[in-house]
Amino acid sequence: MRLFITAGLLSQCTALLAPRITRSVAPLRAAATEEAANPRTFGLALELDDGTRKVHSVAENTQFVAGFFKGLGQRESFAQLTTSFYFVYEAMERALDTLDCPTLKALDFPELRRLPGLERDMAFYYGADWRSKIKPSPATRKYVAQIEKVASGDEPELLVGHLYSRYLGDLFGGQMMSGMAVKTLGEAVGDGSGGLAFYEFDAIPDSKAFITDWYTALNALDLAEATRADIVEEANVVFRLNIEVFNELEGSASGSALR
Question: Which terminus, N or C, of the chain has the lesser number of Cβ atoms within 10 Å?
Fold first, then answer.
């Protein structure tokens, strides 16, 4: 009898609770579905976003960047920054072309390649013989050396930290940066000859969808936990190297990129 009553009570309790459970779980299921559709909310994508948040904020608030977005930029310093990016991307994309690393190949989307645009920018700022006129600044040489060190080391997959910091950062902020350059510098840049080609991602009509695809590929990488942690640390190194490049400029034309 006790068993029957107990079973009956349990049955009643289950019936009473079932609608409540259904109502409370439904939003959670919807949230889980939304999370699964947004690869930035889990995996290595989340680890990189969270793990670089602090240093990313520092980079965005350097004197050069803050001054530039206040309209204090100069053509010479903008050209020097673009020159630094040329040397950085030349080293990074050369590594992508020469390394036989499945991890890197999975994230090497041709739409992201920046070197062709940067070469057009160099011709715009320095003329047809630009290769004989430019040289990397001290901070840029340090940045390039780090790329080459990782590329020639035992863990070239750590370059994922560089791809994440550079490609996504420049895709995210490219339109804003180029727009501010035109507003601040006027006809000194962006006259159609290639002064802002670095920031033009013509092969990516929908940047939001593209970034989602890139993060999905990132999360699909089969990497050990220790390697993932090392990639996050390498991304932090990249941001610190960027900060050094910005600090070297400080919104002025000092330390010109011309030979």
Answer: N
* Numbered residues of the known binding site: 56, 164
AA identity, residue 183: K
Nearest to 96 by CA among 84, 107, 80: 107
Between CA 254 and CA 259 the distance in angstroms is 13
Amino acid residing at 70: K
Binding positions for heme b are 56, 164
| Structure-token pair, residue 212 | 């989602």
Structure tokens at 197: 């080609």
In the chain, domain spans: 1-37, 39-249
The two structure tokens encoding residue 169: 């950062």
pLDDT tens for residues 214-224?
Answer: 999 999 999 99
Q: Are 121 and 82 in contact (CB under 8 A)?
A: yes
User: Alpha carbon of 76 to those of 43, 116, 228, 255: distances in Å?
Assistant: 41, 21, 39, 10
Nearest to 47 by CA among 231, 253, 194, 237: 231
Over residues 173-196, the pLDDT tens digits come to 877 888 888 877 776 665 555 689
The topology (CATH level 3) of 39-249 is Heme Oxygenase; Chain A (1.20.910)
Please give the C-alpha separations between residue 62 and each of 32, 145, 227, 240, 247, in angstroms, as whole numbers: 38, 23, 30, 11, 7
pLDDT tens across 199-258, in order?
999 999 999 999 999 999 999 999 999 999 999 999 999 999 999 999 998 744 333 444
Locate tokens 């990016």: which residue? 85
